Each structure stands twice: as structure tokens, then as C-alpha cells.
Task: inverse folding
């Protein structure tokens, strides 16, 4: 199933920016769509954003639209999440996840270990 | 947006019990539903996809059923390692790829 390793998390002030990375290995990265999912303290999983395998299509949750940008480098086997105008409510652990879609279903079959982001002054 | 409602939000249980968690979608999602398990400090893990298909490597005591709007995850003969939070997720109508709010399985 391969491996996903996130990095780039940290502490940032409200209004600040941060770029997360997700390094993929052990599978053909360029063949898979990818997602970012967040787990905020005391809350449940929240889907953030998706990018198609070739970068031609993206989706965003309303809560991050216009502030977060997903991108990928299929030569470097890496997924990115550029986060700007960060708010305290963006605090949480950010996971990248691999998309697996068939003719009759779709699911996230492989996840990274997560990278923590804290937005606080 | 599709709303996914899980119940209960928490369930006390003991080793050896049989537990059922339900997930209701606000509209028909066919069988485009997955179940995930998450333990504190670890990544979510896929358990069930397409409502009733067991992911490779997941113990047979886990099972899923349902279609349309109502789904269940059943864990038979609970083991100590099963105490975790469980999430359902729909992927039929997106964005967003909505998760349920989670069900915490507690000792």
C-alpha cells in the first residue's frame, strides 16, 4: 500500500502561513488522487481538500476555500498543502491520504502519520 | 452537502462484547460508504469500503452492512485493541467527502 510521510507542521500566529508536505513512496504516486484531512482537538475527522492524480481537478471544503491550496509534484512524489490566513480553528493534526476509486466506490486506503499545526498567538 | 450522522457518539463496552455503530446519510449514497478506525496519536485506518467489503488485513470480527441511507458497523467479540474512535465517510457526493462525527468505543 505504500507509505505517506507528512512534514512541515508547527506553531504559527493567526494570519500566518505554513506549507505542509506529504512524501509518498512504495506506490505509483502519479496514478492516485490525494486528500488532506484534519483532526482538530476534541473534534472528528474533517476532509479539507483533494487533487486528482494529474493535478487537473481540485476540491476544497468551504472552511478552507480561498485560504488553502493543494498541489503536487509527480516527479518528486510529493503532495503539498499551502495554508495562508491561518486561524486558531485551523489547529489540528493534518493527514494526507491516498484516494482509491473504482466503478462503484471510493475510499481513502492509505494514510500518513500526520503533522501537527498549532495556530496561536 | 450530505450530512452523515453516527450513533451513538460513545459506547461503553467490554472485551468479548458485540457492538453495533450506525451511520445515517441525509440522502441516498448507494454503497459509497467507508468505515475507519482511529486510535489516539495514530493515523486513521480503513476497515470497510463499499459499505460491506473488509479491507485486506482487517480481522473478520469487523463487518459492515447497509445501502442507501442507513449503514452499520458491527464488531463481534471485542478485543482490547478495538477500543478506538470509529468514523463513517461518504464519497458519493463531493465535495465534501463527509465524515460522521465519530463514535468512541470505551471500556
Result:
Amino acid at each position: 500500500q505504500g507509505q505517506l510521510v507528512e512534514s512541515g507542521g508547527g506553531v504559527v500566529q493567526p494570519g500566518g502561513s505554513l506549507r505542509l508536505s506529504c512524501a509518498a513512496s512504495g506506490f505509483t504516486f502519479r496514478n492516485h488522487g490525494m486528500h488532506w484531512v484534519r483532526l482538530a482537538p476534541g473534534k472528528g475527522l474533517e476532509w479539507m481538500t483533494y487533487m486528482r492524480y494529474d493535478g487537473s481537478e481540485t476540491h476544497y471544503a468551504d472552511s478552507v476555500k480561498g485560504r488553502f491550496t493543494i498541489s503536487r509534484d509527480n516527479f518528486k512524489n510529493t503532495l503539498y498543502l499551502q495554508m495562508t490566513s491561518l486561524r486558531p480553528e485551523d489547529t489540528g493534526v493534518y493527514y494526507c491520504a491516498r484516494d482509491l476509486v473504482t466503478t462503484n466506490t471510493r475510499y481513502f486506503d492509505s494514510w500518513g502519520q500526520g503533522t501537527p499545526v498549532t495556530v496561536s498567538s | 452537502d450530505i450530512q452523515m450522522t453516527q450513533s451513538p457518539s460513545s459506547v461503553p463496552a467490554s472485551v468479548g462484547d458485540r457492538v453495533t455503530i450506525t451511520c445515517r446519510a441525509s440522502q441516498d449514497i448507494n454503497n459509497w460508504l467507508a468505515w475507519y478506525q482511529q486510535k489516539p496519536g495514530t493515523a486513521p485506518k480503513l476497515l470497510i469500503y463499499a459499505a460491506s467489503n473488509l479491507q485486506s488485513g482487517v480481522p473478520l470480527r469487523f463487518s459492515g452492512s447497509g445501502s442507501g441511507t442507513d449503514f452499520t458497523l458491527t464488531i463481534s467479540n471485542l478485543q482490547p485493541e478495538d477500543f478506538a474512535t470509529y468514523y463513517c465517510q461518504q464519497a458519493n457526493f463531493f465535495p465534501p467527502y463527509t465524515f460522521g462525527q465519530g463514535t468512541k468505543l470505551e471500556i
User: Anything to note?
Assistant: Residues 98 and 110 of chain A are 5 Å apart (CA to CA).
